[in-house]
Specification:
49% strand, alpha+beta
């Protein structure tokens, strides 16, 4: 069973401009920062801003117990795996929506 996590990720080119906007304009609380990633407490969820070459829409994430079993089910049902690491994968569902799955 998948459960939604409290993180929504976005990918933006200019991490400095993103930090200025989300800190000073939106007034979110910055809780973690690196050269390529910002993490904000927005109240109901964490906003994770990742620096990337291309801007991408928000990426909701879900946690699962066994990522291998979930991956098999996703692929068997028409999903496309876009990116994968040991305990995380991004996929596009049959409707073109992208999600992240993270193993708990």
């Amino acid at each position: 069973m998948s459960k939604s996590s409290d993180c929504v990720a976005i990918h933006l080119k200019d991490i400095t401009a993103a930090e200025n906007f989300y800190t000073n304009v939106m007034k979110f609380t910055l809780v973690n920062r690196s050269e390529t990633r910002l993490e904000y407490d927005t109240g109901l969820f964490r906003l994770c801003v990742d620096q990337a070459l291309n801007t991408r829409p928000p990426l909701p994430s879900f946690t699962v117990q066994d990522i291998g079993i979930v991956k098999t089910g996703l692929v068997a049902n028409g999903c496309v795996i876009l990116r994968e690491s040991q305990n995380c994968l991004n996929f596009s569902d049959p409707f073109g929506i992208t999600y992240a799955i993270v193993q708990a």
